[in-house]
Design brief:
Elements lengths: L9 E4 L5 H12 L3 E6 L4 H13 L4 E5 L5 H15 L4 E4 L14 H29 L3 E6 L12 H21 L4 E8 L21 H6 L12 H11 L10 E4 L7
Helix pairs in contact: 1-2, 1-7, 3-4, 4-5
The structure holds nicotinamide-adenine-dinucleotide.
Length: 261
């Protein structure tokens, strides 16, 4: 079992140009880690801004443009971060995309794309981060992005839901495989976090502000709990800490109590 003596120094966060990924990157910088950040090319400018924000906190930063669903790009991304920041202690596989429409409306192409980014992308980040941490030989932290909709079903979100269930299975399985290497593997399961992903052009039509469409799909009232990305960053900051060595294989809900409703 991992011990408290392992002190993470370098983290890599995917999908970090905005939303939850950006909040995690800044929070880990505040916690004293050097931080690698990743996103796709279309978000390069916003990613550079995150790099500046990390550096303004007195930490080293490295940005890597890569599509997490492409194996060679994930491999190169991890190598680039290790080359720039010296090692990799915490991998936060945060990048993800939503799905849209009922299952009957879902094309094979849409299904494959959601699975490719959310499922394969997380698997590749887990795999290559694990290889690097095993090589370093002193433990590590691997953390994925599941969802409240990775624990319960949701109408008109089936591909997304299936991909987020998959991340829980991946997380439990890898946690078992990596125990002997003192590497913990966990995931977060946010409820409704106010980011671009949860804003919908139909929100106004559903009688509310940001998140109203999603609340309608989840059959929960408009005044149900919601929060900014910092509530997720806070859980990740804990999971990365040395004292979290005894938490592994878990998917932690961060949803203000939305799930049990
Ligand atoms: P967001 O859309 O604001 O940010 C996601 C980021 O991931 C974007 O910057 C995007 O460019 C990047 N990304 C997408 N595909 C990528 C790829 N192939 N390679 C690299 N980067 C890629 O979303 P968010 O709300 O910040 O969500 C972050 C994670 O948390 C996602 O995995 C999401 O599914 C999960 N999540 C979010 C919520 C929520 O309420 N916002 C709830 C549950 C789970």
């Amino acid at each position: 079992m991992a011990s408290v003596s392992f002190v993470p120094r370098v983290a890599l966060i995917t999908g970090a140009a905005k939303g939850i990924g950006r909040a995690i990157a800044l929070r880990l910088a505040d916690e004293g880690l050097d931080v690698g950040v990743n996103d796709v090319a279309s978000n390069a400018e916003r990613l550079s801004e995150v790099v500046e924000e990390i550096q303004a906190r007195g930490r080293q930063a490295s940005s890597v443009i890569a599509d997490v669903s492409e194996e060679s790009q994930v491999k190169d991304m991890i190598e680039a971060v290790v080359e720039k920041l010296g090692r990799l202690d915490a991998m936060i596989a945060n990048a993800g995309i939503p799905s849209k429409g009922s299952l009957i409306e879902t094309s094979v192409e849409h299904w494959d794309n959601v699975m490719k980014v959310n499922g394969r992308g997380t698997m590749l980040c887990y795999k290559y981060a694990a290889m690097q941490m095993i090589k370093q030989g002193n433990g590590g932290r691997i953390i994925g992005a599941s969802s409240m909709i990775g624990i319960r079903g949701a109408q008109r979100l089936a591909p997304y839901c299936a991909s987020k269930f998959a991340i829980r299975g991946l997380t439990q399985s890898l946690a078992l495989e990596l125990m002997e290497h003192n590497i913990t593997v966990n995931a977060y399961a946010p409820g409704l976090i106010l980011t671009d992903m949860t804003a919908n052009p139909l929100d106004a039509a559903f009688g509310g502000a940001h998140g109203a469409t999603l609340k309608a799909l989840l059959n929960v009232p408009l005044d149900s709990p919601e929060a900014g990305p910092d509530v997720v960053a806070s859980i990740v900051a804990y999971l990365v800490k040395p004292e979290a060595y005894f938490v592994t294989g878990q998917t932690l809900s961060v949803d203000g109590g939305l799930l049990p409703r």
